[in-house]
Amino acid sequence: LRQVRPPARITDPYRQEGPASESVLQQVEHDHLSARWIPNNLPAYPGPPRTTGRYKLIKSSFDLDPDQEVVRVPESAYQRLKPSDLVHANVPPRCSRMLTRHFIEDALYNPNYGYFSQQVDIFGGANWQFNKIKDRREFMKLINDHYQKMDKERAGDVPASSQGKGGLGMDRQTWHTPTELFQPWYGRALANHILTTYKSSSSFNNIPLIIYEVGGGNGTLMKSILEFIRENDQNVFRTLQYHLAEISTMLATKQAGALQDQPELLQKLKVHNVSIFDWACRVPQDCFVLALEVIDNFPHDAVRVKTENGEVHQTLVQTDEFNNFEEVYEPVLDPLIRRYLDTESKLGLNPVNGGFLEWLWRSPQWKRLRSTLPLLGNFGRGRFIPTGLYSFLEKLFHCFPRHRLILSDFSSLPEIASPGSGGQAAKSRNAPVVQTVISGETVRVPSYLVRPGFFDIFFRTDFDGLQRMYETMRQQCQPTQCSSLVQESRTAVFSHRDFMLKWAEVDKTRLVDGDNPLMEFYANCKFFTTGAKER
Looking at residue 310, what is its pLDDT? Predict the structure, then answer.
């Protein structure tokens, strides 16, 4: 059911010298069994494990001690872990198994070694006068200059010995969002949509406007929305409530501090330092829920179909004593995966549950054909399924039964698959983009099986599938779980350009030569909205 990586391959990355070299990256690209990037300044590989007849769990550490006796641990002793088991861990686990979504979540969000807690800064602080910028070339130069300014400021604040990830040549990464790049105009477009929907809906009569934002970044979107509403409708602003659900303690503190110079706005804000997936409070009031530039990092599960009988198997990431990763498969047991696959089947999207293909899998003809194809693999092509997004929608219907949802993120991403690499992008559908920055250069690799905390792992969203999924889940809601208002509301998908054309103050972001980067950038993003029932 799985392929084991040849032990001889372990030694290669440890023999590199000098800065991160091309051979190290090639090793990542061409080893699809357990692709990973390994820094070149780790201690020498301690040699093959010494078999002593004793079995014990080894303390998790990526830095292998050459003087430490390494004892082979039987797979039967591997621990089955979840991210909640590792919140106090300082290093990623070894001798463990995790569902794919748990492995990705831990790699991105672990508070001690996760990517977002260690590797990322958010582009911010720029507030350009677009009408005075000559053309796109000048605008791109301004962006680059601001990046360099942020790098210099960070270098002055952080000692050289602690810059990057352990001094391994891996840079802290500054990434921008449309909220930051086009502030305040991007946020004002969202605020215009919210305020117009609020004032035109009879369900909001005589009740305050309440907004919940998931993952608020620097707090820029929140600030832009509050300022727009204060400027355009004092009556609505007087009773406005704005809530931020932020998993990062550092960003939660930063968001609260973003309004220190504006006490009138600050009193409208409440920051909740919690993951939206751990949100437990039920909000019975009508409210807007915003999730912008966050769902691309929602964890996914991976599933594969057994060619013998068409049975779907869930994927586990197994890590051994030497931090080698491999995928192992088992029949679907996880309740969340089961619920997603059941809903997917009702939409007619599951390729093996029902219909002609299910009959084919189980037919005697297929069994006879398979017996003549001895080289046919045990499993078909894998695929990543958005169980994190599905769980988020479940949370919405349960905890925010009267919500209006505004969601935006990537609808398409480049495929990273080198010819002959056999990487995950080449093998699996809906595979993520996995990338990091080394010595100022962005490096993408074809597998998510990489050292936790070093790489960004993000997915595109099928917005048409999301719309159908949302509507199906809404129909399944019980009256006690989901209000009639939500059940009857309409849903819509917009391109980034169409949404901005309808709601943004487009004249404010037009350049001297007539180009409008707010309209032209982020062409690979879409919006999904839910609103009041049309009358």
Answer: 76
* Token pair of 66 as six digits: 């050459």
What contacts 435, CB < 8 A, 6 or more positions away? 442, 443, 444, 445, 455, 456
Distance (Å, rounded) from C-alpha 105 to C-alpha 425?
A: 19
Alpha carbons 379 and 309: distance in angstroms, whole number = 10
d(CA 518, CA 502): 12
Query: Residue 272 pairs with which residues in a beta bridge?
Result: 245
CA distances for 403 relative to 196, 204, 322, 346, angstroms: 16, 12, 47, 24
pTM of the model: 0.80
Q: CA 233 to CA 224: how far, in whole Å?
A: 14
Query: Is residue 179 within 8 Å of 219, Cβ to Cβ?
Result: no
The pair of three-digit structure tokens given for residue 210, joined into one six-digit string: 């309440």
- How many Å is the Cα radius of gyration of the chain? 25
* Number of neighbouring beta carbons within 10 Å of residue 373: 9
Each residue of 461-473: pLDDT tens digit?
999 999 999 999 8
Task: Give the DSSP letter string of 32-83.
Answer: -SS-----TTSPPP--SPP--S---PPPP-SS--TTSPP-PPPGGG-EE--G
- Whether the upstream peptide bond of residue 178 has omega within 30° of 0, thus cis, is no
The CA distance from 65 to 43, in Å, is 7
Largest CA distance in the chain: 76
86: which DSSP letter?
Answer: G
Residue 62: name the closest of 41, 84, 83 by CA: 41
How many whole angstroms separate alpha carbon 119 and alpha carbon 107?
A: 11
Q: Are 180 and 217 in contact (CB under 8 A)?
A: yes
Query: pLDDT confidence of 193, banded at 50, 70, 90?
Result: very high
Q: Within 13 Å of residue 486, how many CA atoms lie on the same side as its CB?
A: 31
List residues bridging with 441 in a β-sheet: 438
CB 175 within 8 A of CB 122: yes
The region, left, alpha or beta by phi > 0 then psi within -120 to 50, assigned to residue 422 is left
Q: What is the DSSP letter of 470?
A: H
Higher-confidence position of 484 and 143: 143
Which sign, positive or negative, has the C-alpha torsion 410, 414, 417, 418?
A: negative
Q: Which residue carries 């029902």 as its tokens? A: 354
Residues 190 and 178 sit within 8 Å (Cβ to Cβ) = no
What CA–CA distance (Å, rounded) separates 248 from 204?
32
391-396-400 Cα angle (round to 5): 155
- Whether residue 28 is predicted with pLDDT greater than 70 in this model: the reply is no
